[in-house]
Structures are given as C-alpha cells and as structure tokens.
Amino acid sequence: MTDKLYSVHQAVLGAMDQTGPLPFEGIAAALAGAIGAPEYATLNPMLDRLNSAEPGDPLATLWNHYLTRWDFDEHATWSAFPARTDERRADAYAKLGLPEGIRTVLNDQCAIFKAAGPVVISKDAAFEPWYMLDGSPSRPPFYWKAYENLLRDKGWSPDAIASLDQAARSIVERLADPTREDPYGARGLVVGYVQSGKTANFTGVIAKAIDAGYRLVIVLGGTLNLLRGQTQRRLDMELIGQENILRGADPNDPDALVGIDYQDDPDWPEKFVSHGGRPSMRNAFDIERLTTRDDDYRQLFSGIKALEIGKHDPKKPLYSPENLHRASARVMVVKKNKSVLTNLVQDLKKIGPLLGEIPALIIDDESDQASVNTIDPKKWESGTVQRTAINQLITQLLKTLPRAQYVGYTATPFANVFVDPSDEEDIFPRDFLLSLPRPTEYMGVQEFHDFDSAVPEEERTVANSKEKAHVRGITENTGDRLQEAMDAFVLTGALKLYRVSKGIHQGPFRHHTMLVHESVRTSEHNALAERLITMWHNSEYTGPNGHARLAKLFENDFSLVSAAQAEGLPTPSSYEELRPFVSTARQMITQGGTPVIVVNGDTDRYFAELDLDFDRTDHVWKILVGGTKLSRGFTVEGLTVTYYRRTTQQADTLMQMGRWFGFRPNYRDLVRLYIGREETVGKKTVDLYEAFEAICLDEEHFRAELARYSTLVDGKPQLTPAQIPPLVAQHLPGVRPSARNKMFNAELVEIRSPGRPIEPAAFPYDKAMTARNTERWEPVLKTLSGTEVCQLLPDSTTPLARTFQAASTVVDHAQLLSILSSLEWEHGNVLAPHLTYLAQLDGRLAKVDDWLVLAPHRTARKRIEATILGHGPFSLSRRSRQDGKASFGRISGMEHRAYAQWLIDQAEAGEAVTGGLGQHRGVVLLYPVVEASSDAEVNAAAADGTVDPSKVITAFTVIPPRAAIDSKRQLVRFQAKDSSQPDAVIIDAPGS
Predict the structure, then answer these.
(1) pLDDT level of residue 140 (50, 70, 90 thresholds)
(2) pTM of the predicted model as reported, rounded to 2 decimal places
C-alpha cells in the first residue's frame, strides 16, 4: 500500500533541496494534488502521524534527515544563525511555517546535535565558491545520494551522516573547480583519529568530487595488496556499485560473469550498493574501474584506452561542462609500490595533451607513511632535491596531472610538519588542513584515560573512571596477568554469544580477536605463540578449574563493569547463566586447529599464506601475536582484549598502541587493555600507560588549539597551514625545517588564553637552572599560608561533593609577570608567546589586577611535606617526564584544575564565590614538584624536612580571567622573520 502522506512530504521537502526551508503548505498545495493526495496538503495529518509513530517510521525518518541536514549546514544562505544551535532549528521551523505542536514533537524525535564540526585551517578565508551542495536541477548529486542512502540503510544516524556530509563538503569545496580554465592543484591534509572511519570520509569526498566533475580518481591505499584490496572492496561496495562492476553483464548468466570479481564474496551482491540500472542510463555517468579487488594497477592492464576519456565536443577541452558531465569517471586503488606507480606514471604520459585537461583527485591514505620524503638534505647533490622512491613518484604524478588535487589522510595532527613546506612539488598541505570531529560511538583515547575527571583517585570506580573500567595494569605485584588476559578473551567471546542469544544483532560479533604484543623481535613471536598455545591447552576451559577462574573473573570484573557501563545491553546475572556459551566460544577460537596466529610479516605473499582476511572469512576468532609488522591501515576487526608489554624503546608507540581504538558497537564494556606499568627500558622503569597518555594529551591539546585558532578575525584566518609547523614546535621542541640552513619564516609571537589554562611543561634538567627558578618564586612562597578548603560540587562524574586543601595567597599582576618573565627553560623560552599576552593585561589589551595563587596539598594519606628556602612546609608533588622529552606529561591535578576553572567561570557569570574572585583576578596553581617515579624517592629528597632548591621544580598552571581579551578576540598572532618575504614559508637561516 502506497504511503501517500510520506510521498507528499518527500516531494515537498525534495523541492527544498537547493533552497533550504520554505513555507511547507504553500508547496504542498501545488504538489499534493499531482500526487493524488490533496487531503495531505496541510500539516494536520503530519501531527497525528508523528504522535503515533513507531521507531523507524518513514515520515519521522524523512523529517529527521532534512532537519539534521539544515542544522549542520555551515554555509546556509537562508539563515543568519550558527549551525547546530537552537536558533538555527527555530529559524527552520519558522520558514517552514510549522505550528508549535509539530515543533515540540520534532524536537523530541530529532534532537539538535550540538557537537563541534570539522576544524578547517585554510590558506585563504575566501576560497573560490564553486561547489553546489545539491548539484543543479539538471545534474543532481547521483553518487553522493546513493552513498548517503547506503549509510542510512546500514544504520547510520542522521547526525553521523550529516557530520560526514559537512566534512566531505568542506574538503571538496576547497579543491579547484574542475571546469576552471587555468589549472590549479590544491594540496590538503585531513586529520582523523586512529581507526575512526577515515575511509568513510574519503569515500564521501570521492562521491561528491566525481558528482562535481572530477573524472580520474587515484587512491593510494597502503603498502600491501591486502590493504589495497580492502580499500578497493569498500569503494566497490559502497560507492561504485553492482552495475559499474558488472559493466552490463547479465548477473544471471554464469558465462557472462567469468573474470568479474566478487562472485565468491559472501556479501555479493546483497551488501553492494545498487544504482537501479547503469548510471549512464539514469541521467548520470558510469564509473570505470582500472583496478579490481585482486588486481592492482598493471601496465596496460585495462588497455591504454581505459585512460583515454572521450569528448562529446572534440573542439572543446575535456574540462568544459559540455564534455565533463557526459564522460565516465575512472577510479583506481593502487599500492604505494615503486613498480606500480612507475607503470601508472608511464601510462599517463602516453595519453598526451589530453592529460592537461583531466580534473583528477589523488587520495593518499596514511599519507605520513611512505609518501613523505625522508632523505636527509645533507645527502642531496648540490642544487638538486633527492627524494625517496615513493615520494618521487607521487610528485611525478602531480606534475603529470596539472589539474590533480592531492588530499592526504592521517591520524596524527603533527604529520604535516614532517613535509618541507618550501618544496613546491611536494605534498605539504599548502591550501588547507581539516581536522575531523571525533565520531560519536568512537572508542578512543578518552575511553581509556581519565583526562578530565575531577574525581580523586581514591574515589574512582568502574562507574566513574575509564581507566578502572577498561585498563588492567601489569606490575611486579600483579604478575604478568597473561592467563587472566586469555581468560578475558574467552569470557568476552561467551558474553558476545550470550548477547546474540538475547536478540542483539550478531554483525559486530562476526570477528573476535585478542592482540598480544611483547617484543619487536620476530624471533621471539614464535616462542610467545608456543607459550600461549601451551597456556591454552593447560587452561582447562572445559573443566572445573577453568570454569572457576572464569567465574571469578566474571564476578570481580566483567559483571561490575557491564552493570555500570552497558545500559540496555543484556548481561548474565551469574556465571552459571553464561557458562553454556563458554564452550561455543572455545570451539570458535580453536576452529582451524590453533587459537593463535603469528602476524609479523610485511609482504603480500606472507599475508596470502596467512589467510587472515577479515572481509572474506566468516569468523576470525583468534589470538594474534605480533604488532610492529602489522602494516598501518590493517584493522584488527573485533579487537576486544589487548596485551601490551613492549620492553624496548617505543619508536612507534603511538601507532601500535592505537590498535585498541575504534568502534565497538554493543561491546564497549567488554574491551580490556592489559598494559605494562613498570617495564624495564635500559636502566629505567617506564609506565607504558602514562607514556602513551602524555603523547595523546599533546595531540588532544593541539587539536583543541587548531579549533580555537580556526575562527576568523576581521574576515582573515588567525592561522594558516604554513604557520602550523612553528605551532607544532610548542608541542615537539626542536622541530625545524629539514634543511639545516633553512628556518621557518613564520614566528609565533603571541598566544592569548582568556579563561583557559597556560601550563608549560618543559622544565630544565640543569640543577643550577632549577635552583635559580625556585629562588625566583620565593616572594610567592613566603606569602603562601593557611589551609583553604576548596570544594567541588557534584557533577556528571559523581553525585558527591569533593574537597581538597591548599595554601593560598594573592599576588599583584606585575609581580607575577616579573617572576614568569625571569624563568629559565630547557628548549628556549617556551612561555614567550604567552608572556606577550600576559604582559598586555596591564590595561592595554585587558585589565588583570592580581592573581589568586593556590598550592594544593596531596591527600593526608599521601602527603609529603618539606620547607623550601626556609618557607612552608609545602606539600610536595611527584611528576615524571615523558619518555625522551623534557616535558612532564601533566602538571595540574584534574580536580585542582576543575576547581580553578570553576572559580574563573563563576567570576565571568558575575557570581560571588569564596575568595572574592572577580572578573579582574586570575588563578595560579603552584606545585613544588620532585621529579620521581615513586613516593620513596620524594621522601628521600625531603628526608630532613627540607628540600634543596635544585631538587624541586616549581611548576605552575596560570588561568587568566575570561574577560582578559579585547573585542576582536584574536587568539594567536604570528609575524614574518623576514618582513621582505611575508609569504615565504621557509627562508635562509642567518649565516647560511
């Protein structure tokens, strides 16, 4: 039966695709009769339908789609209100003419998604506006619409689809117009999160780009054919589609399907997008694949004709609209392999003059792997840039295709600093850097660390602590916990099977894996695998001892975490209820003969023999041993338990540890990380969990900086891509251009932080410098006194109020500025850009009268006190430097910072608080820090109740008032070192 009400609303809202919201009933009056449903020309039937709508109702889903899309539109010409705000939604309702009753129902069924969108750092604030969101009436966005519908069918929420739509549009509109006369190749970088859906983003970008007119798409997809094939399959399944793969072959004729891939794929054809016929027969254009799932690009593989794009009007260039929008698109996914890319470049050169007319898009997945030129400039021949093989071929590809746009994808925001921005032929993102928002439902660093928790450590539980819920530390006292980790793997497999039996969809549980990584040496992997196999056979998972261990682990760990973290998911009330599923889990893990697979190769032949293909294998339930040789981009599907104990220098710590990030639908509560907290590295003891936390904090803070500085001031960007390298140097001291006789022209001179913490962490190693810094703080130390009780009110993390004690004083602004200006640092004056800002808070930029200084005490149970320079006693804090860096991972305690931030926020709101903090008083948190890895070392430094000034680092966090900014609200400022070359990125260093 036809849903006429839905048909009318679909037609009316579809008429607004290019305009934004318009009076609904006016359009409905014109269209409802033509559809044969004049009774639905008013809004009254809509309210009745929505009030009784079941979940998934088509009409409610349709409105959710359009409202979310209008909420997200950053370039809406129909509204003056910001995206993703109540005001924007109300404006849409007003323009639609919706009555209050319908507005209320729609708000209940389609909440406004207010999370931040993508952050864009662009060379120019005003790029050439050419991209149309919905194409044109004669040329609708065919492939984007198909991709959007597929995502909706896969269960993506309207918010997630709208977020992807917005991010993809923000990228495509910064590429060159494919129909422009003069060729220009934009260079951009997209920064996502580890295993966070970057492929989905660039699939959306490709869809929008080919709809807009790009006719050659080259995806550089990893260094292994396994990874390349995974990317090819994703694009074929979700974008290119059945009809383009078949190329007119009859899907019911076995003879016609010979040589066509995916005939053995368990998901073919049901999960591959269908366009309802050949796109060229549906007012669109076909896509020709120049590579397949199993075959990378080969010289003349598809014939040179496959790269030659015919013209409808031979007298006009290909990029003219008359030719461009009638031509088929070509898509290929190629490895970053010397022979493959060499063949591609050679074939392209054979095409001749047409090459200069082809609008092309190059997507570089994992662009900081293999693509970057890593040859030391000191080894270059005089006057000649020497390049690594892959970098050389990518630059050749870009020169061969003058209309090629290059977009790199990476998971680290620091990646672009390793590319020389002065090399015009290289891949530096000169035009834009886009930082993707953290996806909803993504399980990343914030799900394993209590970054923003103000809950004291002794009060943290599995309900209010991510670390307590998911992280299991390995120390000398705990033993190696390897048996426990293996038990957790079996137990979580059983819990997944239990959830399937209770109606939870089994899709996310298709694969179930555990990763064990103890050593970089491949020679040790086999020995570890043998140990695991022996442990497995001795685990007695079918006997009383095995069940007793699993029952204890369930009762003491998983039942507690699931009760707190798995709301709405079925969880057994006891181990006995779960026990029947343990046997099935054990059988699935041992299917094929062994529960363990060693993964330490890096060649296509190795992975072909390993037969570890998550796409083609129905169920991979295995323990994987390895780590380092798993090429980046290889996603370990279903990863639930990770065991990580690297005992060598962590050169690739971030890449490897990110393995446990990703999407864990319906089993987030089951994820466990077993990680070394006391690993021996040379003569040092390293806490791998804290080391990783410090690295991630750096990245998170840098992403936050990009977001703050992306706001335009007077219509101009505060930060451009060329200025990012010197900004990175604030986080990675010592970063400089690759050539030793060059330097960055952009100099960071000021960072303004109204209402935000300033917390330098790179303190000197030198004891004399440390002593001098301590002495400079003496005017403050001698006035600190009393025991102020600082109270944090209940919040979302805990229903309880929390308190800590602190000594306090008030310091004049000029006195604090004098102290901060005199301090010495390990890598130059890292505080300099902040001091430029603080110095202007004497009334020139804004007025700060004085600062409330708080020196927090540790809890009474952990407190170690000592006098400093004859003053005090003070509560000493313990901190450790990041591995290989002068910086401490974190200075201020989260509950201390939360309290200081609350004081600042209350003052901004004009509310009186204890201490009399007003809008012209800032807060300083002061910490006498002893560099140590244990409290015993702190006690030793203060054995006689005093601590030597050379052994105490006076660390601090400064939080200016929110009012400490002018009306322009510019937050960052650069200047050119060579004012005669203001646009130069790299200049000669003095004396070169």
Answers:
(1) confident
(2) 0.82
